[in-house]
């Protein structure tokens, strides 16, 4: 889930992982997908908290952080704006233990792991935030879902629709919560806008046009095809999710138009439009 600090660099602990050279993760089986998880017998489940006047309240939701990069730092800064009796980060995992330990020390997180598998086995973790680079969202998310952890995945949920479908199917099979971290969906201004559109106060909304841009040349993960870089997956989702909610009302579009160019480096540009019928479109 992006925060006002934004995402400005590749998470340091994900730059050298061999799987970052894969763009379509569904075509290559990741070692993470085959992991069997076994709860650590030394850790105990959480208990209800005592409240004044002899009542009890639900214990705080216990978060695990997958990846110790900048976006995971920003996420935890945002999480700590919420009451500690409601949400608490209890563990962090990175592919290098030293990076996880540094993150844990900086943020006061109790446990640090040198692998994602250890985090998946931690029974004191209720939900995991996945803040890895885009190509690693699929294998990491499947790992935690199969361990019966709820998962919040940094956007984009997957690099392809096939990846997103795999994650959704795994969440249904495990009976756990899965969500893409589109933080803008929770802005008060967004809720007000959607209420106005749904209530008809703005009339019959048929077309949405918008622009969102900033320089990408200095951000490695946004320039590299092997890291699923490019403007569409990083910025394009904002316009797409807004159009889907405001114009499509959650319905899939009837038509999708796209045109673009691809440079020798693998980078390029794309223009696209969506139509829901009845003259309603984005483009």
From TrEMBL:
Ranges for domain Gfo/Idh/MocA-like oxidoreductase N-terminal: 62-182
Classification via SUPFAM superfamilies: Glyceraldehyde-3-phosphate dehydrogenase-like, C-terminal domain, NAD(P)-binding Rossmann-fold domains
EC number: 1.1.1.179, 1.3.1.20
InterPro entries named in the record: Gfo/Idh/MocA-like_OxRdtase_N, Gfo/Idh/MocA_domain, GFO_IDH_MocA-like_dom, NAD(P)-bd_dom_sf
Transmembrane segments: none
Superkingdom field: Eukaryota
Reaction it catalyzes: D-xylose + NADP(+) = D-xylono-1,5-lactone + NADPH + H(+); (1R,2R)-1,2-dihydrobenzene-1,2-diol + NADP(+) = catechol + NADPH + H(+)
Keyword Transferase: no
Sequence ranges assigned to domain GFO/IDH/MocA-like oxidoreductase in this UniProt record: 191-257
Annotated region (Disordered), positions in chain: 1-57
Keywords for the protein's UniProt record, in alphabetical order: Oxidoreductase
Keyword Oxidoreductase appears in the UniProt entry: yes
Biological processes annotated in GO: D-xylose catabolic process
Biased composition range(s): Basic and acidic residues: 10-27
One Gene Ontology MF term: trans-1,2-dihydrobenzene-1,2-diol dehydrogenase activity
Family matches, as Pfam families: GFO_IDH_MocA, GFO_IDH_MocA_C3
Family under the similarity heading: Belongs to the Gfo/Idh/MocA family.
Name the record gives this protein: Trans-1,2-dihydrobenzene-1,2-diol dehydrogenase
């Amino acid at each position: 889930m992006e925060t006002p600090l934004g995402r400005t660099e590749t998470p340091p602990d994900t730059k050298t992982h061999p799987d970052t050279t894969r763009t379509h993760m569904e075509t290559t089986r990741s070692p993470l997908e085959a992991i069997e998880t076994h709860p650590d017998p030394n850790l105990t489940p959480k208990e209800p908290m005592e409240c004044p006047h002899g009542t009890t309240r639900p214990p705080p939701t216990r978060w695990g952080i997958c990846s110790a990069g900048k976006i995971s730092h920003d996420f935890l800064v945002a999480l700590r704006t919420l009451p500690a009796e409601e949400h608490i980060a209890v563990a962090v995992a990175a592919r290098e233990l030293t990076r996880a330990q540094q993150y844990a020390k900086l943020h006061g997180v109790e446990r640090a792991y040198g692998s994602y598998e250890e985090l998946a086995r931690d029974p004191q973790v209720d939900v995991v935030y996945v803040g890895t680079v885009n190509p690693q969202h699929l294998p990491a998310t499947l790992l935690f879902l199969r361990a019966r952890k709820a998962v919040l995945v940094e956007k984009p949920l997957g690099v392809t629709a096939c990846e997103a479908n795999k994650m959704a199917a795994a969440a249904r099979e495990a009976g756990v919560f899965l969500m893409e971290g589109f933080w803008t969906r929770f802005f008060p201004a967004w809720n007000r806008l959607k209420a106005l559109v749904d209530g008809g106060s703005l009339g019959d909304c048929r077309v949405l046009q918008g622009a969102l841009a900033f320089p990408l040349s200095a951000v490695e993960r946004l320039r590299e095809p092997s890291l699923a870089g490019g403007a569409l997956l990083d910025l394009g989702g904002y316009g797409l999710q807004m159009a889907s909610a405001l114009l499509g009302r959650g319905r899939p579009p009837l038509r999708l138009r796209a045109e673009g160019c691809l440079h020798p480096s693998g980078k390029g540009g794309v223009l696209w439009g969506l139509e829901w019928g009845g003259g309603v479109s984005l483009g």
